[in-house]
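Thanks for the sequence, V.! I ran Peptidase M20 dimerisation domain-containing protein right away. Repeating your input here for the record:
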Amino acid sequence: MSRARCWRGAGGAFLGLLLCGVGILVAALLLRTFTLPSNRVIWQGPAVAEVVFTSEERQLLKRALVGAVRIPTVSVSEEEQNYTALAEFGEYIRKVFPRVFSSSIIKHEVVAEFSHLFTVQGADQSLKPYMILAHLDVVPAPPEGWDVPPFSGEERDGYIYGRGTLDDKSCVIGVLQALELMLKRGYKPKRSFYIGLGHDEEVSGHNGAMKIVERLQSRGVKLLFVLDEGLAVLDGVIQGVKRPVALIGTTEKGSITLNLTVNQPPGHSSMPPEETSIGILSAAVSRLERNPLPNMFGVGPEASMFEQLAGEFAFPLNVMMANLWLFSPIISRVLERTPSSNAIVRTTTAITIFNAGVKSNVIPRMARATVNFRIHPGQTVTEVLDIVRNTISDERVEISVLNSFDPLPISPFDESNFGYQTLQRTIHSVFSAAPVAPGVCIGNTDSRHFVNLTDSIYRFSPFKMKSEDLSR
Ligand SMILES: *[C@@H]1O[C@H](CO)[C@@H](O)[C@H](O)[C@H]1NC(C)=O
Ligand SMILES: *[C@@H]1O[C@H](CO)[C@@H](O)[C@H](O)[C@H]1NC(C)=O
Ligand SMILES: *[C@@H]1O[C@H](CO)[C@@H](O)[C@H](O)[C@H]1NC(C)=O
Ligand SMILES: [Zn+2]
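Predicted structure:
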């Protein structure tokens, strides 16, 4: 995920809400609270294979990850990536996972020079295949702030540290190592599946994931579901929830980046006009900050998340979460008070660049600012642009769109959805029955390029994250 961020709740503040006078409704509410469907194991489909590793296999897995972290596959921009490291990574996985590369049921293809596509042939060709994604590149690692050198893969207190351990080499190595070990045990899947490893996720996925999509599309492939990196098992991250809970990203926010430009006649500071380009632009930018886009709580999957996790909150939050029909106005207002939870209830506005002027006695002709909006799943690029134009409401401010994309469609997460339920079951079996709920990814992943191949895209990384891990 590009600078992955997980959602952090604002539950502490909920306690104050008790004062809102719930009185006689309590009985009805409690009834609803305790009759909400439990989200413990409900899927009755195929069982999840029990995973038992020998200690020797665990060592292999660890060494494979350390070796991967040591290859500095840094992406700086679409134009600047470490291609030497990406090529080295290709050689590395061939060496470390020999069965994957020699199995008669697996076809391996290099896509766009550095990305990898594996097709694992299932026994039953009538079953629709699924796909697992991960990416090889990492964001740059400035030397400051590291306890160990970022590309050392050093182990401390039972943890491996380094750039890419979380994002996303654990997933790359996890998937390949799992396949390698299953092949060793004579594994032959019934359902075919693909593994896609992109090489430029951190800088767009235009060369990696998108080329993989083109190749699959040219073959007429449709996918049952796609699994990519994303949310995780959150342990003590959502305030008010004690047990670890797993969130599966069922959508991603969209994004628009705008340049706002004001051009006014230049002049000398001794005879200033009433309004300068800087003044006009500042006022516009300030209007944007003072008039945030509307709170959309209840429109996206964030409401389902609270509803499904209701039983994990202590009283009275459990009652409130289970009764969003009544409490969502209050809950949505509490959520918007913390930047991290505000980000899940609305399209956010961030002024990121502001440029004007070069000399202390010259009034500049041009002032320009860049603003980035992350779009809530309940809105579109067009709707956000309309609102922004209305808010700025000044023709002297020229608005140009640098780039934009709509939020991703919300993937199904009902009880009959094969992909979601298989994931839920797998998570239960690996993470001691942690409750599973749908969530919103605030960052973006390679999986967004797959929308035309499936309606079921899930974003989940199998890590247990505590709040102190989020800043990592
Ligand atoms: C690119 O990766 C190679 C290893 O494959 C490494 O030796 C080199 O220092 C890296 N280049 C940069 C600019 O980090
Ligand atoms: C947008 O504005 C920023 C900040 O002033 C500037 O650096 C960038 O070149 C502008 N981009 C375009 C396409 O105008
Ligand atoms: C999906 O298909 C539509 C219609 O053909 C196309 O406009 C869009 O760019 C495609 N999206 C992706 C991510 O490939
Ligand atoms: Zn990532």
